From TrEMBL:
<protein>
    <submittedName>
        <fullName>Tripartite tricarboxylate transporter substrate binding protein</fullName>
    </submittedName>
</protein>
<dbReference type="Pfam" id="PF03401">
    <property type="entry name" value="TctC"/>
</dbReference>
<dbReference type="InterPro" id="IPR042100">
    <property type="entry name" value="Bug_dom1"/>
</dbReference>
<comment type="similarity">
    <text>Belongs to the UPF0065 (bug) family.</text>
</comment>
<dbReference type="InterPro" id="IPR005064">
    <property type="entry name" value="BUG"/>
</dbReference>
Length: 324
């Protein structure tokens, strides 16, 4: 009797272990079995939202389930990413990601999730940050702007998409390199910041490429681009680094899933995203709004995130930036 009980117990334990071990595989085999939620952690109208919506429909077609975009903004993208991070890791809840929620923001303040523990499925786009200014500012080009901000070091107001976003840290890096004290004015995303910049309520903004149509329409003035190389869409525009030493920043957007998402699901999503980003019509749509398609598989993307987080932490420490 005793041996029979022990044998039954062993079978129960082994069976439970088998269920636990095969749970990720079962989730992967069943994926997807319902609509996918794609959280955009910024308001409608900004670059992350534009890219997410370009991606959603063709991704849904490839997956055989609709991909529903849900805007959940706040905390520099942290609120939306937190909602994704706390979801079941079965691939049915994803989030667009950006430096503010993944590398720049966590360099400034603690987040309710570990950015390095997330399942970084794929990079989607890369682009420069555009140093744009309101039309009425007394600077027609980058050289004149640098002279202006040095002459009036605490009079210039620079907008950002939120505390700890890439657009914030780019402005702080400019302060650090120039030895100036431009005043930071944070917004809840790129869209509201651009609206106030066009209205003349702030002076400059390191915007993502969603500012490009406003530049083309004459609503804003483009002073420079943030990477070390010039931008193909506006090849005559100088880089910030051509005037400001040691300045090289680029913007990126990606897709992430909750920690522990099975590798098979990540691989499926990454392959489908790469498929979409190779399509000429998608490349053209992204290019039209200033973004370059930049698919990157999970392992490579995770390594990229780790390196960039280390870089921004060093900038935050050097500039003595605080979350408040």
């Amino acid at each position: 009797m005793h041996d029979a009980v022990l044998s039954a117990t062993r079978r129960t334990v082994l069976g439970a272990g088998l269920v636990l071990a095969t749970a990720p595989a079962a989730r992967a085999q069943a994926f997807p079995n319902r609509p996918i939620r794609l959280i955009v952690p910024f308001p409608p109208g900004g670059g992350v939202d534009v890219v997410g919506r370009i991606l959603a429909d063709p991704l849904g077609t490839l997956l055989g389930q609709p991909v529903v975009v849900e805007n959940r903004s706040g905390a520099g993208g942290g609120i939306g990413v937190e909602a994704m991070a706390k979801s079941t890791p079965d691939g049915h809840t994803l989030s667009m990601t950006a430096p503010g929620a993944i590398t720049a923001g966590p360099a400034v303040r603690s987040m309710p999730y570990d950015p390095l523990a997330l399942s970084h499925v794929s990079m989607v786009t890369r682009s420069p940050l555009l140093l744009v200014c309101r039309k009425g500012i007394a600077a027609r080009n980058l050289v004149e702007f640098v002279a202006l901000v040095k002459r009036e070091p605490d009079a210039i107001r620079f907008a950002s998409g939120g505390v700890g976003t890439g657009t914030h840290l780019a402005g702080e890096l400019l302060n650090l390199r120039l030895g100036t004290r431009m005043v930071h004015v944070p917004y809840r995303g790129t869209g509201p910041a651009l609206t106030d910049l066009v209205a003349g309520n702030v002076d400059i903004f390191f915007s993502d490429a969603s500012a490009w149509p406003m530049v083309q329409q004459g609503e804003l003035r483009l002073l420079a681009v943030s990477p070390a190389t010039r931008w193909a869409a506006s090849p005559d525009t100088p880089t910030v680094g051509s005037v400001v030493p040691d300045f090289d920043v680029s913007n990126w957007y990606g897709v992430a899933a909750p920690p522990g998402t099975p590798e098979a699901i990540q691989a499926r999503l990454a392959a489908d995203i790469a498929n979409i980003l190779a399509r000429p019509e998608v490349v053209e749509m992204l290019s039209r709004v200033g973004f370059d398609a930049a698919p990157m598989p999970p392992a490579e993307f995770a390594a990229f995130v780790r390196r960039e987080l280390e870089t921004w932490r060093s900038v935050v420490q050097a500039a003595n930036i605080r979350a408040d």
